[in-house]
Design a protein that fits this description.
This protein is α+β, with helices and mostly antiparallel strands. The chain contains 10 helices and 6 strands.
Length: 266
């Protein structure tokens, strides 16, 4: 950091892809990982980022995404209990406030965790709670640096922008997972057939072929996004959900036209 103007552009691009990625069967970790890579690529200095999610009990933090952090470190903190002195992320999740630790080697919040971080060269960790539209803590977004330092005011502002985007992705994921799978599978990673249709030929497909009722499936997903938009408290988030619903309807219309063309050719 500091984050360049490219950060907003990168997150705007990511925002437009989230609903479609979930409709295609992408996992939450994969989608969030792309968010984090976009953040890291926009930074002017070397940094590593992570997202941790609260478990169902609200007492432990679980791995969400951390594409650049060592896997051994992610595994070591997965399932850690939150508390008033539980590193940056565990403390941020516990208190509901940002926790910016400028030096992991000396800060008391890291007494039980610095032996996990320092061998990987992690020296600073700034963690911010991720909240849903009603204000409930979903998890934490963290920025790690390899040298001791504190965030600047502009970096704090950028972190707020990032956590808003991450929260929307998490809520989209939960909204989608609560609905029946659009592709007729058991909710696994099988891509939505119409996404293969729009982006190009998929495995086992031929030119001009559109699997039956893909238009209807996309329409169903759009309806659910609209319904969720009516329930959320944030106008900004509701508008984003409605925009995603409109994109799904456009894909459904493309599928309908493709199916019609295929019939005409026969």
């Amino acid at each position: 950091m500091p984050f360049a103007l490219g950060l907003k552009e990168s997150l705007r691009d990511r925002h437009g892809q989230v609903a479609l990625e979930f409709a295609a069967g992408e996992s939450l970790e994969t989608v969030l990982g792309r968010h984090l890579l976009a953040v890291e690529a926009s930074a002017d200095t070397e940094l590593l980022t992570s997202i941790l999610l609260l478990d169902d009990t609200g007492t432990r933090i679980l791995h969400g995404a951390a594409p650049s952090l060592p896997k051994s470190y992610c595994d070591a903190i997965h399932g850690a209990e939150i508390g008033p002195e539980a590193g940056s992320c565990g403390t941020a999740a516990f208190t509901g406030h940002p926790i910016y630790v400028s030096d992991i080697a000396t800060n008391v919040l890291w007494d039980d965790y610095r032996h996990l971080a320092l061998p990987h060269g992690l020296r600073a960790c700034w963690s911010t709670p991720i909240r849903d539209p009603e204000g409930r803590v979903l998890g934490t977004f963290a920025v790690y640096h390899l040298t001791p330092r504190s965030p600047t005011p502009s970096e704090v502002k950028s972190i707020r922008i990032i956590t808003d985007h991450v929260a929307q992705a998490i809520m989209w994921s939960r909204s989608h997972s609560a609905a029946p799978p659009l592709d007729g599978t058991d909710g696994g990673t099988t891509p939505h057939p119409n996404l293969r249709l729009v982006s190009g030929r998929g495995e086992g497909e031929t030119d001009g072929y559109a699997p039956p009722d893909t238009a209807g499936r996309f329409h169903g997903f759009a309806v659910k996004l609209d319904q969720y938009a009516e329930r959320v408290g944030s106008r900004k988030f509701a508008a984003a959900l409605k925009a995603a619903a409109a994109d799904c309807r456009k894909l459904g219309e493309a599928a309908r036209n493709r199916q019609k063309d295929a019939k005409d050719e026969r």
